[in-house]
Design brief:
Blueprint lengths: L1 H37 L9 H22 L2 H18 L5 H28 L6 H4 L1 H24 L13
Helix pairs in contact: 1-2, 1-4, 1-6, 2-3, 3-4, 4-6
């Protein structure tokens, strides 16, 4: 009886590892984007806890439900709720500031992901190759991760954020 369950458990564990491999860096990129848009003083190591917890939760949700079953809108809203909650629990900014920043950061990240897919399509890269090879999926994922982190850094350094900061009132 247990012989039939063993492959299922191994497959579930592999899906969970794959989910964590991509969800945690993605959560860090979105968290960095959101926090840089919030206008707060950015301390990169303080983002590690909310990003890691968000990545672990979303990786688990993705592995358990698979993308085919989990509607895209539900996935985005769940991401929004978890990330805002984690950032608020870590007291990194006020609730409304975090809600607005995360609400802008998620679409920015999704736009970067869409552009990354478009560039791969225009470059005649087989879009389905990432389903077959974990290393190919990781190589396709790296550009959007780096662009997101670079954009968060630029937003922070150039003080581009959603709110008027002290000393910059109109």
């Amino acid at each position: 009886m247990l012989a039939g369950i063993d492959p299922v458990i191994k497959a579930a564990g592999l899906n969970l590892v794959k989910g964590f491999l991509f969800s945690i860096p993605e959560a860090f990129a979105i968290t960095a984007l959101a926090y840089s848009l919030s206008g707060e003083k950015l301390v990169w190591w303080k983002l590690a806890v909310p990003a890691a917890v968000t990545g672990l939760i979303m990786g688990t949700v993705t592995a358990l439900f698979q993308i085919r079953i989990l509607p895209f809108l539900f996935h985005v809203l769940l991401y929004l709720v978890i990330l805002v909650t984690m950032l608020y629990l870590c007291k990194l900014a006020s609730f409304w500031r975090l809600l607005a920043a995360v609400s802008f950061a998620i679409p920015i990240y999704l736009l970067i992901e869409f552009i990354n897919m478009g560039v791969r399509y225009l470059g005649n890269v087989d879009i389905n190759i990432y389903k077959e090879s974990l290393s190919a999926k990781f190589h396709c994922f790296l550009p959007q991760l780096f662009v997101s982190l670079l954009l968060a850094y630029i937003f922070y350094r150039k003080q581009i954020n959603l709110f008027v900061t002290k000393g910059k009132e109109v």
